[in-house]
User: What shape does this take?
Amino acid sequence: MPSKQLIQVINKAQSSLKLCAATGRSITNAAAIIDCLKLVDPCIISGGTQIVHPASREILWEKKIAKTDVTKVLDVCSPYSYELLFRDELLGQGKPAKERTANDSINVIYVMKVTPGHAEAIVEGLADIDGIAVSRAPSWTGKYIDLHITNSQGTKEHAIEVLLDMLHLSKEQSIGVGDGDNDVHLFKSVGLRIAMADATERLKSEADKIVPSVDEDGLAQVIEEYS
Assistant: This one.
């Protein structure tokens, strides 16, 4: 959850900045944080597949994975026992790929707590599916990887382009702050790319600037500097 300092800084800065969360989490996992920060501007959730109003939860924009591609994803993941979460499911609510069925198009598939070696094998297998994009995110456990699978046009990169249009802002007027490989897409659509000190090495290599870690309230420092 956000620190008291971050909450105070955001509350003060909302009169001068548009502040939008852009998260790989579904609304079930992101809601508590969005509510705690009292965000008022549209937020990107579920890996870039949805833009929602932070208070009403109204979906303002969405991009889904085609049903045929969902089936192909399940085929690639079926040799493994990792839990797959669809849409807004929480840990413990999902099932392994071999126990899931593609009944409809969906916005996001999460493959949870994957070992690094298996993650690379799954990503390689998914590379043949033209209609999807795959992002790696650090698992909450720290030593595993979560895979976020979306429509190829439903990443943070694409969602930010739509969001900036909604807000009548240019790319040059935007700043993106991230910490994981799933923020590589985010960096493609913002004017200034900022990585946290505890970000992945890949993301830091693509950043224009590196700021203190989450534990040191680096995000609060960014917002204060540019507000």
Observations:
- The chain has a mean pLDDT of 96.
- The radius of gyration is 17 Å.
- The chain has eight helices and ten strands.
